[in-house]
Design goal:
The chain has about 220 residues and is an alpha/beta fold. About 40% of the residues lie in helices and about 20% in strands. α3 runs parallel beside α4.
Length: about 220
């Protein structure tokens, strides 16, 4: 499944963009929103991921926005593995109460670390209460792609692990992961723009997948 990332838009435009997609990630951290508009967005669909990366909002405000997304019916909520235990545990408790699935994510925008580190990070994510774990790393060479794809051999987490390669060289991971057990991969909408380095458009990703499936 392709998850369309939506961000850098108004709340009204966001509502329009999620109408025709099966699964969408709402990048709250790229939008000028308040709790009321977040509730309105997440009440429109039962197939939305709430993501609010650090930076734009304080942790208190991030918690408030994510909490409102969960209460309004978010299917998933994404929290960084580096988040303070108190923050992550509070979000996890809310998610459990509202039957929202928790994604614990790791991002490295400079490189792809070694296999031992990556596997340990995946295990830590699930130990912290994740329903799904996400690993997204910058790919600087072919070996980085191989290390990311190799994570999908962790049988205990089949169907629960999302891997993504960032940068132009990492696109192969975004495509291959769907054929190797990832529940979904991220793309940007046809009327949108990339929200991560190397992210493909949903249309391009579908075309590549069809070529692989049908030649």
């Amino acid at each position: 499944m392709i998850c369309v990332s939506v961000g850098n838009v108004t709340a009204r435009e966001c509502a329009k963009r999620i109408e025709a997609v099966d699964l969408a990630e709402i990048r709250i951290d790229t939008m000028d929103v308040d709790p009321v508009s977040v509730r309105r967005i997440f009440s429109l669909s039962s197939s939305l991921i709430a993501t609010c990366r650090p930076g734009r909002y304080t942790d208190d405000r991030r918690f408030e926005l994510l909490a409102n997304a969960i209460a309004a019916g978010a299917a998933y909520v994404d929290v960084e593995i580096e988040a303070a235990d108190e923050f992550r545990n509070a979000i996890a408790a809310l998610a459990l109460r509202h039957k929202t699935r928790l994604i614990v994510s790791y991002h490295n925008h400079r490189k792809t670390p070694g296999q031992r580190f990556l596997r340990g990070t995946v295990r830590d994510a699930f130990r912290s209460g994740a329903d799904l774990a996400k690993v997204a790393c910058m790919v600087n060479g072919p070996g980085d792609n191989l290390r990311l794809i190799d994570l999908l051999k962790m049988k205990a987490y089949t169907g629960k692990l999302i891997v993504a390669g960032m940068g132009e060289m990492g696109r192969i991971v975004r495509v291959a992961s769907l054929f190797l057990g990832c529940p979904f991969t991220y793309a940007f909408g046809d009327e949108g723009e990339p929200l991560a380095p190397g992210q493909m458009s949903a249309r391009s990703l579908k075309t590549v997948m069809e070529l692989i499936r049908y030649g």
